[in-house]
């Protein structure tokens, strides 16, 4: 029927559309070429699908045309058209093309030529025109059979849009419905958090299982549609899953993306050149606190209501907020030779600051990591001299001037708490910690294991030192906790007396031979044991080797 309407109206009245495109003037002999061009364009217009969202790609300065026809015989024919620009502003228009009253016959064709120009305004007209990048919907009602022509144009660059046409306005909407007040309210601002709330979409109350809210956080600007946000992120060099609604599968993530799933909320963080872009889908909750933001930074927040079944979305009116400035961190003074034990909060990622004023040109910093891993940043008079991750025991010897000011900043790189002991001293020849071997690993010999004994070995130094060996029976499910969460700064005083195996002194001036072995007897068959070695230096402060787990043989 639509095709028959098209071919019935086109031969007699295409001139009408052509006249409209030339300021409503009938084509003359001098405009025959323009007439042929418009004829070609109309014949090559595409049919716009009814009831389906269509993605249209536009080339710069090249218009693209689609048409659709309303069915004949309907008293009233309602329809709606929604156009979503996915990048730059575009221009789009709707032209309605109706047949003149009465049907022309070949006999009276010549007599109508004179009056054709007077009829053009009633035959074809522009009923809607828009230029911009907002999502726009046109709703119309026609009592006549008509042919509609849609024209789209991008004058800035190549882009794409989505168009949704429907003539069925009674069986629901493709797009989720926005509330009467679609604004996002900021109800709380902190140093690293912003709390948002918004009014519920009516679609949530009707289709709770297939509707969810998704939040987009970025540092650039607000976005008027979900496809506009995705296009902007892709143009920054980031590949994205098709939509937030479908970003629920880990295999869709790119290497530059981080996915966090917590309390039934999915967060996807994209690292792009313009800053961090965060996507969070939180089901049907309409209040959300955005965590882990940077202090004194302006963020833009957009909420989209997404239909998981149709993949269609609607955008709330975006908002923005600036996080509070981080208060100046408390600075603790470091004194010569004094050891400070610092516990670092892994969840809040707070920075702990220590300050030291040099009374000598050469200064030695010592860090003994007790638990977890940390990042250390040392500046001298405001200039960075050390910045790296630490594990185990580390020394830094720095040379400067008298009265130089050193600032040591520490933070945990783990999600749980880390702890470290710090010392600053100008006297490296009298170190607080003992001289260390090349490796703090304990080695076990599988071939020397029996049902009742285990043989272990460890490296020593050129300095005579005391070594104490401890053992502890553990279960399989305790291994990870013992190895990862153990306090490497705690000494034998924290161990039960029954766990002590022996203490011994040894050294060797030849580092190649500075190794010792020990066979621990009296063990149970088929049992897991945790072995620890403590090294004591002149100051008496111990250094704990890396724990070793060994299982005795079950049968011998």
UniProtKB/TrEMBL annotation:
Coiled coil, from the record: none
Keyword Repeat (UniProt): yes
Signal peptide segment: 1-19
Keywords assigned: Glycoprotein, Neurogenesis, Repeat, Secreted, Signal
GO molecular function: heparin binding
Gene Ontology terms describing biological process: nervous system development
Record Gene3D superfamilies: Immunoglobulins
Transmembrane segments: none
Pfam families linked: NDNF, NDNF_C, NDNF_N
All copies of domain Fibronectin type-III, residue ranges: 176-313, 434-542
Subcellular location: Secreted
GO cellular component: extracellular region
Annotated PANTHER family: NEURON-DERIVED NEUROTROPHIC FACTOR, PROTEIN NDNF
Function recorded in the entry: Secretory protein that plays a role in various cellular processes. Acts as a chemorepellent acting on gonadotropin-releasing hormone (GnRH) expressing neurons regulating their migration to the hypothalamus. Also promotes neuron migration, growth and survival as well as neurite outgrowth and is involved in the development of the olfactory system. May also act through the regulation of growth factors activity and downstream signaling. Also regulates extracellular matrix assembly and cell adhesiveness.
Protein name: Protein NDNF
Taxonomic source organism: Catharus fuscescens (Veery)
Higher taxonomy: Eukaryota, Metazoa, Chordata, Craniata, Vertebrata
Gene: Ndnf_0
């Amino acid at each position: 029927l639509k095709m028959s309407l098209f071919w019935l109206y086109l031969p007699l009245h295409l001139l009408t559309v052509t006249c409209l495109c030339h300021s409503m003037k009938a084509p003359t002999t001098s405009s025959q070429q323009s007439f042929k061009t418009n004829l070609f364009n109309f014949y090559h217009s595409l049919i716009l699908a009814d009831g389906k969202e269509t993605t249209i790609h536009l080339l710069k300065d090249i218009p693209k045309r689609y048409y659709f026809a309303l069915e004949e015989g309907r008293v009233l024919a309602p329809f709606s058209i929604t156009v979503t620009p996915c990048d730059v502003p575009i221009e789009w228009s709707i032209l309605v093309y109706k047949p003149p009253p009465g049907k022309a016959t070949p006999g009276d064709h010549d007599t109508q030529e004179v009056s054709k120009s007077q009829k053009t305004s009633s035959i074809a007209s522009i009923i809607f025109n828009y230029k911009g990048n907002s999502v726009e919907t046109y709703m119309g009602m026609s009592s006549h059979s008509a042919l509609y022509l849609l024209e789209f144009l991008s004058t800035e660059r190549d882009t794409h849009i989505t168009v949704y046409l429907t003539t069925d306005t009674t069986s629901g909407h493709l797009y989720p419905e926005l509330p009467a007040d679609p604004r996002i309210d900021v109800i709380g601002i902190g140093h690293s958090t912003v709390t948002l709330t918004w009014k519920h979409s009516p679609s949530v109350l009707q289709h709770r299982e297939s509707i969810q809210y998704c939040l987009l956080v970025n540092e650039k600007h607000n976005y008027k549609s979900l496809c506009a946000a995705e296009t902007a992120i892709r143009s920054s060099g980031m590949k994205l899953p098709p939509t937030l609604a479908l970003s629920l599968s880990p295999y869709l993530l790119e290497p530059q993306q981080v996915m966090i799933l917590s309390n039934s909320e999915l967060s996807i963080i994209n690292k792009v050149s313009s800053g961090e872009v965060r996507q969070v889908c939180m089901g049907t909750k309409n209040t959300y606190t955005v965590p882990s933001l940077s202090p004194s930074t302006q963020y833009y927040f957009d909420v989209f209501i997404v239909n998981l079944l149709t993949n269609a979305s609607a955008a709330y009116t975006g908002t923005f907020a600036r996080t509070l400035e981080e208060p100046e961190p408390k600075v603790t003074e470091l004194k010569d030779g004094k050891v400070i034990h610092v516990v670092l909060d892994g969840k809040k990622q707070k920075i702990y600051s220590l300050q030291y004023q040099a009374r000598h040109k050469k200064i030695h910093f010592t860090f003994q990591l007790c638990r977890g891993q940390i990042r250390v940043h040392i500046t001298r008079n405001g200039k960075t001299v050390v910045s790296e991750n630490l594990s185990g025991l580390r020394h830094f010897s720095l040379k400067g001037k008298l009265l130089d000011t050193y600032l040591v900043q520490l933070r945990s790189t783990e999600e749980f708490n880390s702890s470290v002991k710090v010392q600053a001293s100008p006297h490296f020849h009298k170190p607080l910690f003992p001289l260390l071997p090349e490796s703090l690993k304990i080695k076990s010999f599988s071939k020397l294991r029996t049902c009742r004994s285990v043989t272990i070995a460890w490296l020593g130094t050129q300095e005579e030192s005391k070594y104490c060996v401890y053992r502890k029976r553990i279960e399989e499910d305790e291994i990870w906790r013992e190895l990862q969460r153990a306090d490497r700064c705690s000494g034998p005083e924290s161990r039960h007396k029954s766990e002590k195996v022996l203490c011994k002194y040894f050294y060797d001036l030849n580092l190649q031979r500075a190794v010792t072995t020990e066979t621990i007897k009296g063990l149970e068959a088929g049992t897991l044991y945790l072995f620890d070695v403590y090294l004591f230096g002149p100051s008496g402060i111990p250094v704990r080797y890396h724990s070793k787990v060994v299982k005795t043989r079950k049968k011998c």
